Amino acid sequence: MRIVLLGTPGGGKGTQAKLICNYFNIPHISTGDIFRGKIKEGTAEGEVISSYMEKGQLVPDRLTISLVEERLIKDDCKNGFLLDGFPRDEKQAEALDLIMNKKNEQVNFAFLIDVSKEIILDRVLGRRVCPVCRESYHVKYNPPKVPGKCDVCGTALVHRPDDQKEIILDRLTIYNQTTQPILEFYEKKGILHKIKGDGGIQDIFSQISGVLKEA
Ligand code: AP5
Ligand code: MG
Description:
- It is a single chain.
- Strand 5 (about 125-130) and strand 6 form a beta hairpin.
- The chain has helices at about 15-25, 30-40, 45-55, 60-70, 90-100, 115-125, 165-180, 180-190, 200-215; strands at about 1-5, 30, 80-85, 110-115, 125-130, 135-140, 190-195.
- It has one domain (about 1-125, about 165-205): 3-Layer(aba) Sandwich (Rossmann fold).
- It is built from 9 helices and 7 strands.
- Magnesium ion binds near residues 13, 30 and 32.
- Magnesium ion binds near residues 14, 30 and 32.
């Protein structure tokens, strides 16, 4: 199964991606995580990426598409994958089709996690992440066992740098302008599934896994 997971910033893509990928045993490919990894490496490329991400702007298509293509040709993607946060505009959606065509494959599921704005802000402002192993939590909805400490490695949890209210609002505006239009792209292909995303983590997972198990 080759899946794209679409939705607003803070809507729960990463949370669901982890559950889906564990359950169906496919790799989780998050462009946000790839970029955060590049920034951590401290390379010139990482600096370019950071200059966009810190403002909540999209990283240029050329760089984004080449990193995704590089990832999708790896062996572990042979039996499927889940893309979290890619594609994010029409150019990326078309590029993904080209990459798939080259491999004689196609994306067969696109999920939109649809969440209202108030809930998005509540989720993003309460998110805490581990700066070392990148595990993600929410202070109310998905708290760590020991407050402020990562369950996996014990490191002190932090806010993501782009999780400040003004930047989130900019990320939402960009989403509405550039990502919203690609919903139609997948609707036309007949593979778009709109998932009600205001509920709990397990409820959303049941909706998505229900569609995948039926296929
Ligand atoms: P990226 O890292 O992809 O961020 P995003 O799309 O803005 O989404 P988030 O990671 O903020 O949210 P999420 O939907 O994963 O929610 P999560 O599960 O964490 O991208 C960051 C930046 O990188 C972009 O702004 C851009 O600069 C760049 N970038 C990335 N991809 C790009 C691309 N393709 N092209 C160009 N640039 C790109 O959940 C949020 C919180 O809510 C968590 O605390 C979680 O515990 C909690 N939560 C989740 N689900 C629920 C629930 N059902 N109930 C209660 N709480 C919940
Ligand atoms: Mg995410």
